[in-house]
Task: inverse folding
């Protein structure tokens, strides 16, 4: 019985509520593989934050798809803000930098927007009152709930000590000598199970598991790698769950990692022919036989094995460069169809695979 899997274009989880507002995928890996000035780049909107870095390579055409109108509206808002505002105002409007609600409202009102985007985002903002945009998705709200649990297990002093570590050396000394490993493992055991995640977020659509013997076995080593990668202040996920907000710019997502890259994104977006469309990627690929490059969000975890195989073979045959896909917990396709990318993104939840011609960058 697989009724919980994504069969159609309207699964329960990817409906019209805003699920993602920040980004739990770091697309810098895609940017490193994406050809410069590609004719057509195809991508999934999600929060839109995963899309902005793809403009740095100045694609001639950018096709952005999603099943959810809300995700598309937020992505449109991000792109218009990128085109019309400078870096400090982008940071303020989205909530990366502190600003009063009045300032954020004024910035929103100043933007020239498509009427549908304005109406959707206006009512979304009103229903979240003073909360900055980046925290308003259901995924982000769930992380803020986890933050409340984290605060009951870690003292303010411990959290301060973690985030005071600025260098790899300071952090590894703290991590190996003083970090409360046992309490962290207990927390992962408590939260990383399908029932909790379905209740908190996925409404029955949490991916099935075939990549480990339990959710804990899947998540525990991935978190360990994330901790070993460097100071938690450099990681947006750790900032969210330990601090309840993004406080340290060195751990901001790629879309705002520096003013220089923001300006590159802006130049790329201003010169690109951009289409935002509500469509299933499967349908799109079946009707568009020649694209250059695709960066698919984690949609593969939710596809049936048949649909995943079809989408991956369409990607392999339609794209002139190898494309990037992600999935977690559930590996939907035979790994022989692509090559694993060893490098992980900052979130480290995903297995990342390169599919298609010229698999030069990957190593499996
Ligand atoms: C699992 S979410 C990941 C969001 C992302 N991690 C981010 O950082 O914004 C996947 C996104 O893909 C969309 N989606 C899921 N399946 C899709 C499909 N078959 N075709 C197009 N979009 C899809 C969802 O609506 C959602 O916005």
Result:
């Amino acid at each position: 019985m697989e009724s919980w899997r994504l069969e159609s274009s309207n699964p329960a989880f990817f409906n019209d509520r805003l699920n993602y507002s920040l980004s739990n995928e770091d697309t810098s890996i895609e940017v490193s593989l994406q050809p410069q000035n590609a004719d057509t780049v195809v991508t999934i909107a999600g929060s839109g934050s995963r899309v902005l870095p793809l403009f740095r390579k100045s694609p001639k055409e950018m096709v952005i798809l999603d099943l959810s109108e809300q995700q598309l509206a937020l992505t449109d808002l991000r792109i218009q803000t990128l085109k019309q505002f400078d870096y400090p105002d982008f940071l303020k409007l989205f909530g990366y930098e502190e600003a009063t609600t009045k300032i954020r409202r004024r910035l929103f009102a100043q933007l020239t927007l498509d009427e549908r985007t304005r109406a959707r985002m206006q009512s979304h903002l009103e229903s979240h009152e003073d909360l900055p945009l980046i925290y308003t998705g259901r995924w982000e709200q769930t992380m803020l709930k986890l933050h409340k649990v984290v605060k009951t297990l870690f003292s303010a002093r411990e959290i301060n000590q973690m985030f005071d570590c600025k260098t790899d050396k300071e952090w590894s000394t703290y991590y190996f000598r003083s970090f409360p490993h046992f309490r962290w493992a207990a927390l992962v055991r408590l939260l990383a199970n399908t029932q909790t995640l379905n209740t908190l977020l996925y409404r029955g659509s949490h991916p099935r598991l075939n990549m480990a013997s339990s959710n804990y076995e899947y998540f525990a080593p991935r978190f360990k790698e994330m901790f070993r990668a460097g100071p938690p202040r450099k990681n947006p996920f750790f900032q969210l769950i330990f601090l309840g907000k993004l406080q340290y710019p060195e751990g901001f997502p790629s879309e705002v990692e520096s003013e220089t890259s923001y300006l590159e994104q802006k130049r790329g977006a201003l010169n690109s022919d951009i289409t935002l469309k509500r469509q299933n990627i499967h349908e799109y690929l079946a009707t568009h036989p020649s694209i250059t490059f695709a960066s698919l969000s984690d949609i593969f975890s939710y596809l049936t094995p048949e649909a995943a195989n079809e989408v991956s073979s369409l990607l392999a045959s339609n794209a002139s460069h190898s494309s990037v896909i992600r999935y977690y917990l559930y590996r939907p396709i035979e790994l022989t169809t692509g090559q694993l990318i060893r490098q992980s993104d900052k979130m480290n939840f995903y297995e990342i695979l390169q599919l298609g011609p010229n698999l030069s960058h990957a190593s499996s």
